[in-house]
Write a structure and sequence with these properties.
Strands 5-4-3-2-1-12-13-14 form an eight-stranded mixed β-sheet, sandwiched between helices. The chain has about 270 residues and is an alpha/beta fold. The mean pLDDT is about 95. The protein has helices spanning about 5, 15-20, 25-40, 50-60, 90-95, 120-125, 160-170, 195-205, 225-230, 240-245, 260-270, and strands at about 10, 40-45, 65-70, 75, 80-85, 105-110, 115, 135, 150-155, 175-180, 185-190, 215, 230-235, 250.
């Protein structure tokens, strides 16, 4: 069976995949996704970003999109209706933040309306071209409420984050799922949360299966999503460790070269 006859659902990550390095979607990609909609493909965007941050990005596509955010902790319909919501346990987060984490590491709690952090991080702030999801600098030692959507850490030294991950998992072997969405971003969610789990909920709602989907990603938080899809592609700009872990998957051209849109044009729209 040709790919065009098999695929009914298009799934894509945002950063490093659908978004270019300027954190925006190109006009060419927008045109391609509008054509996909007109040809009745179901479109799902799955990202580690918070929904307030992701809404204006997917709106720029100007076509209906299911939105999976915070790596699966939230699902919104194309009409922005909240379909699924799951937070981490506050006690578990509190225990992690009591581990005496290196102050050089940026620590972030994803809340519903604001992201709380221990320090200003211009690199993280640059991911929002317009500030739809504001940050708030806090002293976590003085925080009383630790319930959050997601907990993550950022540092330019990847090995420092690997060491932190091992410490957290040693103390919490069964509490969290985790992933490096980027080499400098280590993310923790509740153990039940994953992009692939959230996407499956959408597919079941729309009477499709993963076998009928094509997916695109570049980070370790995309791994299960890529493994589940009927056809999966890895971006050339993805880290080598992910490519080596999924050697059976085809690598396509970079996000800055509109890799997703060009592949979809060639395989589904031509």
């Amino acid at each position: 069976m040709h790919l065009k006859e098999k695929i009914k659902v298009v799934i894509s990550d945002l950063d490093g995949t659908l978004l270019q390095s300027n954190h925006q979607i190109s006009e060419y990609t927008k045109t391609v996704f509008q054509k996909l909609h007109k040809e009745n493909y179901l479109i799902i965007v799955a990202t580690g970003r918070h929904h307030l941050d992701a809404f204006p990005i997917v709106e720029s596509l100007e076509c209906p999109v299911y939105l999976v955010t915070s790596n699966g902790a939230r699902i919104h319909s194309p009409k922005k209706e909240l379909l699924f919501s799951f937070n981490m346990k506050g006690d578990s987060i509190k225990s992690v933040l009591e581990l005496d984490i290196d102050s050089d590491i940026t620590t972030v709690l994803f809340r519903e309306e604001v992201w709380q952090t221990n320090k200003l991080n211009k690199k993280l702030n640059s991911f929002q071209t317009k500030m739809h999801y504001p940050s708030e600098i806090v002293d976590f030692a003085n925080l009383n409420d630790f319930d959050a959507i997601k907990l993550f850490f950022s540092h330019d030294n990847h090995e420092k984050l690997v060491e932190l991950r091992e410490r957290i998992l040693e103390n919490h072997p069964n509490d969290f799922s985790h992933a490096f969405s980027l080499p400098f971003c280590l993310e923790f969610m509740d153990k039940s949360v994953d992009k692939s789990v959230a996407i499956l909920k959408i597919l079941e709602k729309e009477n499709y299966t993963f076998a009928e989907s094509i997916s695109f990603g570049d980070g370790f938080n995309d791994e299960n999503m890529l493994n589940s899809a009927g056809k999966a592609l890895i971006m050339e700009n993805a880290v080598d460790a992910l490519k080596n872990k999924l050697p059976h998957l085809e690598v396509i051209t970079t996000n800055d070269n509109d890799g997703v849109a060009k592949y979809l044009t060639k395989t589904l729209l031509s």
